[in-house]
Fold this sequence. Notes:
By secondary structure, the chain is an all-alpha fold. The chain has one domain (12-66). It has 3 helices and no strands. The chain is rod-shaped and about 80 Å long. The N and C termini lie far apart (81 Å). The model has no long low-confidence stretch (mean pLDDT 82).
Amino acid sequence: MSNVEFETDFDPSKQLIQNRQNQLGGLTGLLMKWGIIKDESQAGAVMLGIVVINLAIMAFVIYYFFF
């Protein structure tokens, strides 16, 4: 029992974040890896913003070229 050593630099929150990043793929995993977002709810908000911006661009292009 006297030969037990403990890791003092182990941070379970970093391990949890790293495991979560490895499980998530695609754009969500990439944004988390870059540190832009911290969890899936922020990823949802970012992706919703991307969809809204793309819809606005698409509406502008359709209006400009067809009307």
